[in-house]
Design a protein that fits this description.
The structure is a single chain. The chain has about 100 residues and is of the alpha+beta class. Helix content is about 35%, strand content about 25%. Strand 1 and strand 2 form a beta hairpin. The longest helix has 11 residues. The two termini are about 25 Å apart.
Amino acid sequence: MIDYETTIDSKGEVLSLYDKYLVANDGTFVFPDADDIYDFLVREYWPEDLALPQGFNEAFKQEFKVAAEAKYNDATCGWDWHECDLEKTLHEYGLK
């Protein structure tokens, strides 16, 4: 289970329990969309660093190590966020 108590993503939108998210080093949930990822990274890195594909890829690898998905917890009757495979999530959302 991921230890973050968040209900909003990097754009300030409410998290969907039916989507997966990338989890940044600071715990920010980022929807796996190229524009959303870039918008998040440009806040953390210089735009010049992200201009070339290798710079973007390097920043991505430094910032995102895990993805997350919500799972229902019968014991608490609530939803918890759990780690899921980053590569599979990227592939599922058409980013690999």
